[in-house]
Amino acid sequence: MIVKKLTRQGNSSALVIDRPLMKLMDIDNDTELKITVKGRKMIVEPLTDEERKARFREVLEKTGRKNAELFRRLAK
Question: Which of 3, 21, 28, 48 is the most buried (most CB within 10 A)?
Answer without folding.
Answer: 21
